[in-house]
Amino acid sequence: MAKGTKRFLSSIIAALFFIHGIDAYAADKKENLSQIEALIESSKETKGVNVEKIEGFTLKLAKPFMKKTPMAAIMNDLDRMIMFSMEDTSAQDDSLFVDKAEKILKDYFKITETRKDDSLTSIYIDISPEENTFSEMVMYITKPGIALMIFKGSFTLESLKKMGELSQQMEKKENTMESK
Question: Could you give the CA distance from residue 99 to residue 111 in angstroms, rounded to a whole number?
Fold first, then answer.
């Protein structure tokens, strides 16, 4: 067999293994979806639903821009972010989604709930308070619209505490700037 042909065949075989690896990785990730991720997957074809996933190389590109936000506390432990919103959806679709989401989130630990103006935001993690690590954090916004942000990775309660402290510092800065 000619040298060029061997290289060509080797390249094709390597590409097939690479593609198979990506497909296996994607299939494995779909099998390992949390209940809230599965709800998002089942809802993403609904008219007015937007879903954005940031992971892999794209997430690595985003990390430097998050350094001056409270997210800096968990960025090194973050594997994937999923942003979900329902805009211009029917009241029936909204109600159905909220019912399913709230049923799922009953199995999570609510760490905070914030009401500000018309907005209601709750943050949940997927552990009991006795544990020191968690793999999923869900920010659930129900007013004035429906939105979810899911953070997947391997987090500690210490990094969550640091995130809260950074958030409070930023809020104090904003309040100081507004009062000037």
Answer: 20
